[in-house]
Design a protein that fits this description.
Number of strands: 6
Strand order of the largest sheet: 3-4-2-5
Order of helices and strands: EEHEEHHEHEHH
CATH topology of the largest domain: Alpha-Beta Plaits
CATH class of the largest domain: Alpha Beta
Number of helices: 6
CATH architecture of the largest domain: 2-Layer Sandwich
Helix content: 25-40%
Shape: elongated
Radius of gyration: 22 Å
Length: about 200
């Protein structure tokens, strides 16, 4: 796949369900290097391991930083089953790294925090548009397609791959969660502090 920016509008060539996994860490005590450095260097090792295993299920990843103390990876997986299989495999790097982190945490190791989020998104629940970009994100994981092949609007792209009757059904909006006027601090539906 070319790493050159595409000269036209493109989209991700994903079909069906996509699996997105976010995992990261936050350095809580900067000077406790011995506590957070093992966590920091564990992820690149796991990514290299996954990169060598072409059947492992990791399609693509992006390393990001949210602040000088927060680092995370957005990962695109072939399936949730392959993600779970990697996480549980005792012969892979993840299990020993997770066990070591838990041992340090039990011994008062709050110098580093970790988190992850998993999203299993059905067809009709995602769309992507890229301009002047090399394959990135979902497109790096699933390939690039000309934008017009998926529709001219976000609504059309979101209904790509969804059965027609389901795509044409009106989407229900979430009911408004405005506070009742009888709640403390609320006058005529205006929350306290919003006056």
């Amino acid at each position: 796949m070319s790493r050159r920016p595409a000269p036209e509008h493109t989209t991700a060539d994903a079909e069906g369900e996509v699996v997105v996994f976010l995992i990261g860490m936050r350095i809580n005590r900067l000077w406790a290097l011995h506590r957070w450095l093992p966590v920091f260097i564990a992820m690149p090792r796991m990514l290299r391991e996954l990169g060598r295993d072409k059947d492992g299920g990791l399609l693509s990843h992006v390393l990001l930083t949210g602040s000088p103390r927060t680092y995370y990876v957005v990962q695109y997986w072939e399936s949730k089953d392959k993600l779970y299989a990697y996480a549980a495999d005792r012969d892979k790097l993840h299990r020993p790294a997770w066990a070591a982190f838990n041992r340090r945490a039990r011994n008062g190791g709050r110098a580093v925090g970790v988190w992850h989020e998993t999203y299993v998104v059905p067809a009709g629940g995602y769309e992507a548009i890229y301009y002047g970009m090399p394959p990135f994100g979902l497109a790096a994981a699933h390939g690039v397609a000309p934008l017009a092949t998926r529709g001219g609007t976000g609504r059309e792209r979101l209904s790509y791959g969804v059965p027609r009757a389901q795509a044409e059904a009106p989407r229900r909006e979430a009911p408004s969660q405005a506070p009742a006027a009888s709640e403390p601090g609320v006058e005529e539906g205006v929350p306290a502090g919003a006056e």
